[in-house]
Amino acid sequence: MNIMLFHSAYGLRPAVRAAADRLREAGHEVWTPDLFEGRVFDTVEDGRDFKDEIGKDELLRRAVLAAAPYSERGLVYAGFSFGAALAQTLALGDEKARGLLLLHGTSDIAANASVDELPVQLHIAEPDPFEPDDWLSAWYLQMRKAGADVEIYRYAGAGHIYTDPGLPDYDAEAAEATWRTALGFLDSL
Predict the structure, then answer these.
(1) For a Cys-Cys bond, which of 18, 70, 135, 155 suits 174, CB 3.0-4.6 Å?
(2) d(Cα 73, Cα 153) in Å, to the nearest integer?
């Protein structure tokens, strides 16, 4: 699979590169665009402030430009938290998208979004302060209405970005379960 993997609001951290390497070792081609142009943050608040300073439209433009040279190949869009939101937006707008792998985040869905059984897998903490249960229920229904084939995996007791060993939310057991399931998902596409 060809995978476009977007980083979180923390920036292109070593954990994102390690995730890309893990995917490559499994036989996938992976791109990890740096939407923050080298900036990396130690706190989610600092990353969110920087993200807001750049602006949603500019970050979406950067994501589109990063994916454009590879979209003809049929990409699987993937991302961490904020990067998952970008991946979702791009996947729902790319008729050649092969799949969507969301780690720790989702995004709004346009009312007119329509996909043809796009395979979607979401991995998320339970509970997650950024993805409350009522939001996830509505998100799931909207994704199904748009035509996506959605699987959701919840990890009780894990923190928001539990796959990054350099962050306080890290949960080794949940992270390993996530990668095992996600690699199976990618192999099925």
Answers:
(1) 155
(2) 28
| Region 147-158 average pLDDT | 95
Mean pLDDT within 150-167: 95
Range of the domain at 137: 2-188
Task: Give me the CATH number covering residue 50.
Answer: 3.40.50.1820
What does the block give as tokens for 150? 């959605």
pLDDT band at 111 (very low <50, low <70, confident <90, very high): confident
- The angle at the Cα of 25, spanning 65 to 61, to the nearest 5 degrees, equals 10
